Amino acid sequence: MTETRAQNAAATPQRNTSKRTVLMCRPDFFTVSYQINPWMHPERPTDTDLAVRQWGELYRTYLDLGFTVELIDPVPGLPDMVYAANGGFVLDNIAYGANFTYPERQPEGPAYMDWFRANGFDVRVPKEVNEGEGDFLLVGDVILAGTGFRTDRASHREVAEIFGREVISLELVNPSFYHIDTAIAVLDPSPADGESPNIAYLPSAFNEAGLEVLRSRYPDAILVSEEDASVLGLNSYSDGRNVVIASRAKGFEKQLRERGYNPIGVDLSELLLGGGGVKCCTLELRR
Ligand code: ARG
């Protein structure tokens, strides 16, 4: 083998997948009728049928990857319910419920908790304000927790107590990246023994204290450009090898390929009008 080929082989490690179970919510009632993040412009028209078709692409992509996809019924009058990631944080069969910041989304909390209960999860009703997996990311054994715009820091302690895991608080500073899942992508959610998990992130979304943590914990992280982050490229979902991303995040796609991942682009332009992408539409169920 030539040296170049050997180097390439080293640079593109064998990535292992593991089967995922996720919860999704069809955007039957999707629209933008209020503004709770800078992406949302209620005066601009939305196309609910197009949102449903684009969401359907994501749904089929997951089925093709062999994922189990469970569905929660959408509720009329809750247009953001499609962003299932915010419905809770589920680990070890425990479902920590969401307690939304804005009144417009508050009824989603009980709706998701009812679903978790009906599907055999040990539901913990939250005391503190939090927006579920939008602000809690499991990376290996630790939970990266966002705060600054939505999820209250007090809920980070609540999560640490409930799940008995290390929770690392990271403060978000750019209102366009208001949930941690818009600023960090988890690439190896549960790496094989001896392998360390990796992430991708947008440095400018964090304050200096957060950046120090990210740099020291994840020295090999992929640093994503503003351009790719601004189509919510980081709002992606990985099974350890296949990374479902926004199809417009071309630079991130290339970075992923160089690292031996298999990026799969999906166009969710209509759901971007609500300020969400691939990951927002996906809540992982870890039983
Ligand atoms: N319109 C929704 C909101 O502002 C979008 C939620 C996106 N979800 C996410 N996990 N980042 O709450």
Describe this structure in words.
The structure is a single chain. It is built from eight helices and 15 strands. With 287 residues, the protein is of the alpha/beta class. The strands form five sheets. It has a three-stranded mixed sheet with strand order 2-1-15, covered by helices on one side. β7, α4 and β8 form a beta-alpha-beta unit. Bound molecules: arginine. Arginine binds next to loops.
Tell me the major beta sheet. 3 strands, mixed
**Element-level helix/strand string:** HEHEEEHEEEHEEEHEHEEHEHE
Average pLDDT, rounded to a whole number, is 94
Query: What is the CATH topology?
Result: L-arginine/glycine Amidinotransferase, Chain A
* Domain module count: 1
**CATH domain class name:** Alpha Beta
Number of strands: 15
Oligomer: single chain
Count of helical regions: 8
CATH superfamily: L-arginine/glycine Amidinotransferase, Chain A
State the shape. globular
Rg, please?
18 Å
Q: List segments where confidence is low: pLDDT < 50 over at least 5 consecutive residues.
A: 1-10
Attached small molecules = arginine
Main sheet strand line-up: 2-1-15
Helical residue percent band? 25-40%
Strand content: 15-25%
Specify the structural class. Answer: alpha/beta
User: Between the first and last Cα atoms, what is the distance in angstroms?
Assistant: 44 Å
* CATH architecture identity: 5-stranded Propeller
